Amino acid sequence: MSYLLGVDIGTSGTKSVLFHENGTQTASATAEYPLYQPRPGWAEQEPEDWWRAAAESIAAVLAKSGIDAGEIACVGLTGQMHSLVCLDGGGNVLRRAILWCDQRTAEAAVELTETVGCERLVEITANPAMTGFTAAKLPWGRKSEPQVYEKTRKILLPKDYIRLRLTGEYATEVSDASGMQLLDVAGRCWSDPLLKSLGFDRALLPEVYESICVTGRVTSAAAKLTGLKAGTPVVGGAGDQAAGGIGNGIVRSGTVSATLGTSGVVFAHTDRMLLDKKGRVHTLCHAVPGCWHVMGVTQAAGLSLKWFREQFCGEEEAVAGRLGEDVYVLLDREAAEVPAGCDGLFYLPYLMGERTPHLDPYARGVFFGLSARHTRAEVLRAVMEGVGYSMKDCLEIIGQMGVPVREVRASGGGGRSILWRQMLADMFGKKVTTTNASEGPALGAAILAGTAAGLYGSVA
């Protein structure tokens, strides 16, 4: 009997989930941490918070499950994509990580395009320059924080920083690396011509592997902090979207996932590399070896509802606390009382700029059609509908690229809402289902770990 551990370094917290080799979830634990927004449009976190949360949640899972750590065959890592961790020569963090939703790099993205050329950039990286992607953060740092840039010897993504702390190895894998916009996405390797044209040293980057490759083993120091057994293999893993795709079974054409997390993502598998020349959706390497995926992103999906809850729902928070209920269940009931269309009130969910279908870091959220007859309930439902329409934009573009869409699988925190799922089904005109696995990214990371350990013949 073997177990697999999936560790998901999210934006709001890190979740560690233990699975039996048959896919049954055995135990789960989450540790949260803050997000810092020192200026409008900026978003940062402390990598040390990620590591503390990873160590705490892993230890908690082992304690809950009661299994011997030696029964864990392999560890899989996943997490938020694109975020930049800058390290000095000793592996020490030089500044807070600049996150995926950070929009400070608008000018740097333009500079990136002008330096490389838009067509050439898309040819190599499969995407136009993105403010949220890692590559644009580097020229911003070179210009705005030269004292940090000059000391930087390695850059890592969030899950790969946890890998470093677990194993001592500097490594990444193709799905997360292709979101850095420094990878030759067709060739699944770092692009030396691109690095040269941008003036970035190849030594800044970790080694890049396929997602099912073992990239290191748990050190004795990490074992003491986490409870894992020293020597336990750690697999490449995947960015959260690719891992979530695997956890939702998006490993063949025809089935698409719609994830209502902090961001909203419509994700589709493809056996060949497909491009949207307008750059409205992303093409990245899938964690399934030799495959790719396309995805449309709504920057503020669940984030829009979370913002509404925090600003306007103090009474519901108090009632939920007294009843021992999830506050979002109460909000669902309130929104369900409002007829579809919210009596002409519409919401554009661009609180953090936008990617799909408008690649615009300056886009902002809007309520329009507001009248004196509208109540807070209509505003609440308009938030949910606005996110749904934005995800419909994503699905339509993916369909226009020739990707078949026969079924949509909903996941993420928002995907637990029956009301929100029904909205998506109505808007998409497609059957929307859920799976019996609630932890998509962590399960995907565990499946990659199980494949590396030889428990499964392939990811599919």
In short:
This protein has 16 helices and 23 strands. Helix 1 packs across helix 6, helix 2 packs across helix 4 and helix 13 crosses helix 14.
Please tell me about this protein's structure.
With 460 residues, this protein is an alpha/beta fold. Helix content is 37%, strand content 22%. It has 16 helices and 23 strands. The strands form eight sheets. A six-stranded mixed sheet has the order 18-19-17-16-22-23. Helix 11 (302-312) packs across helix 12 (314-323), helix 11 (302-312) packs antiparallel against helix 14 (376-400) and helix 13 crosses helix 14 (376-400). The chain is globular, with a radius of gyration of 21 Å. The mean pLDDT is 95.
Layout of strands and helices, then pairs:
Blueprint: E1 3-9, E2 13-20, E3 25-32, E4 44-45, H1 47-65, E5 72-79, E6 85-87, E7 97-98, H2 106-116, H3 118-125, H4 134-144, H5 146-151, E8 154-156, H6 158-167, E9 171-173, H7 174-177, E10 183-184, E11 189-190, H8 192-198, E12 207-209, E13 214-217, H9 220-226, E14 233-235, E15 238-239, H10 240-247, E16 254-260, E17 264-270, E18 282-285, E19 292-298, H11 302-312, H12 314-323, H13 327-336, E20 346-348, E21 366-368, H14 376-400, E22 405-411, H15 418-428, E23 432-433, H16 440-452
Parallel strand pairs: 1-5, 5-15, 9-12, 16-22, 22-23
Antiparallel strand pairs: 1-2, 2-3, 4-7, 6-8, 10-11, 13-14, 16-17, 17-19, 18-19, 20-21
The overall average pLDDT, rounded, is: 95
Helicity level: 25-40%
**Shape call:** globular
Number of strands: 23
Gyration radius, to the nearest Å?
21 Å
Q: First CA to last CA: what distance?
A: 21 Å
How would a crystallographer describe the biggest sheet? 6 strands, mixed
- Uncertain runs are none
Briefly note the structural class of the backbone.
alpha/beta
Note the beta-strand portion. Answer: 15-25%
Individual helix count: 16
Strand order of the largest sheet: 18-19-17-16-22-23
